[in-house]
Amino acid sequence: MSHKALWSGRFKESLSKAALNFSTSIDLDKQLYQEDIAGSIAHVEMLSVCRIISAQEARRIRNALKAIQKEIETGKFQLSDDFEDIHLAIEHRLIQKIGPLGGKLHTGRSRNDQIALDERLYLRTSARELQKLITHLQRVLLYKSEKYFSVLMPGYTHVQRAQPVLLSHHLLAYVSMFDRDYDRLNDCLRRANKSPLGAAALAGTSFPIDRLRVARKLGFDGIVENSIDAVSDRDYLLECVSSCSILAMHLSRLAEELVLWSTREFAFVDISDAYTTGSSIMPQKKNPDIAELIRGKTGKVYGNLMNLLTMMKALPLAYNKDMQEDKAPFFDTMNTIRTSLFVMSHMFVHTEFRKDHLEEELRNDFTTATDVADYLVRKGLPFRAAHEITGKIVSYCIDHRMYFGNLDLETLRTFSKHFEADIFDHLLPHQSVEQKRSAGSTSPQEVKKQIVHWTRILKARK
Question: Is 243 an annotated catalytic residue?
Answer without folding.
Answer: no
